[in-house]
Amino acid sequence: MSGNSDLRPVTVIGLGPMGQAMAAALLRAGHPVTLWNRTPSRADALVAGGATLAPTPAAAVAASELTILSLTDYPAMYDILGPVASQPGALTGRTLVNLSSDTPDTSRQAAEWAAGHGARLVTGGVMVPAPMVGTAEAYVFYSGAGEAFHHNEPVLRIIGEPRYLGADPGLAQLFYQAHLDVFLTCLSSLLHATALVTTAGVPPAEFLPGALTTLTDIPAMIGDGLELARALEAGEHPGELSTALMMGATAEHILRTSEALGVDVELPKAVRSHYERAVAAGHGDQDWTALYEVIRARG
């Protein structure tokens, strides 16, 4: 498609903060946008901006070849589109882009369900919060039906930079969950660390800016990830600058400090466990990266 065909109609189902942000970005780009949400009032501002509110999910899907779903999870897709799918041909030829969160296997099962009803499913994970949708910093992982993705890429690019991972419908969710694994663990560690220092009467404002600098300095300490990836693939953990035994002692001290101060110990216990198991497996004199050997799945 070319020219004005890139301004094809788009349907957005699910108007939480993320769905509203995506619909607003599509409207700003000039696309005709049809909406559906369980609570119709969430569409008010978008309708005032030119969107159309469909009375039913079936009408919403019928309005566009492309339907973007932004829901709590994949079961919500079945709740909403199941009755639509029961109508012969209602989903035939449609592309569903599900940007809801769930597991990789759930995404694969959903792709089979969609194909069984004549639709193509592209799965995805938006890697920025709602206020960043449609900005230059936004990016989204996608996987699944390749032809459908590439056909709709100009539209999807409005939401954020599309990063297509391949035909496996589970890959986008796997990358999404893995990135959020890093993100959520960092957020918990920030709050845990803040809780430690505030026991001494230190205001959070005197601690958090420096703690955030520790996070942003990590790439300078461990590199851009390519050398780390090479070492993990090769199973090389030299231990020239630090060892699992030494860093495990620090993990023990963090746990003991948390216990003494009455701060929650579940996170430091989990971290200490990695080091303890790495040392027990004979990696004590190797680098911290040896933790990978006790964390990774064994096939």
Q: What this model shows, in words?
A:
The structure is a single chain. The chain is an alpha/beta fold and 299 residues long. It has helices at residues 17-28, 44-48, 57-62, 74-85, 104-116, 146-156, 171-198, 208-216, 218-222, 226-234, 244-261, 266-283, 292-295, and strands at residues 10-13, 33-36, 52-53, 66-69, 95-98, 120-126, 139-144, 161-164. Strand 1 (10-13), helix 1 (17-28) and strand 2 (33-36) form a beta-alpha-beta unit. Mean pLDDT is 96; it is low at 1-5.
Quick structural gist:
By secondary structure, the protein is α/β, with parallel strands linked by helices. Helix content is 50%, strand content 12%.
Overall shape? elongated
Element string (H = helix, E = strand): EHEHEHEHEHEEHEHHHHHHH
Number of strands: 8
> For the residues shown, what is the average pLDDT?
96
Taking pLDDT < 50 over at least 5 consecutive residues as the criterion, the unreliable ranges are 1-5
The structural class is: alpha/beta
How many DSSP helices? 13
Q: Which oligomerization state do the chains in this entry correspond to?
A: single chain
Helix share, percent: 40-55%
Order of strands across the biggest sheet? 3-2-1-4-5-6-7-8
Radius of gyration: 23 Å
Major sheet summary line: 8 strands, mixed
List the helices and strands and how they pair.
Elements: E1 10-13, H1 17-28, E2 33-36, H2 44-48, E3 52-53, H3 57-62, E4 66-69, H4 74-85, E5 95-98, H5 104-116, E6 120-126, E7 139-144, H6 146-156, E8 161-164, H7 171-198, H8 208-216, H9 218-222, H10 226-234, H11 244-261, H12 266-283, H13 292-295
Parallel strand pairs: 1-2, 1-4, 2-3, 4-5, 5-6, 7-8
Antiparallel strand pairs: 6-7
Helix pairs in contact: 7-8, 11-12
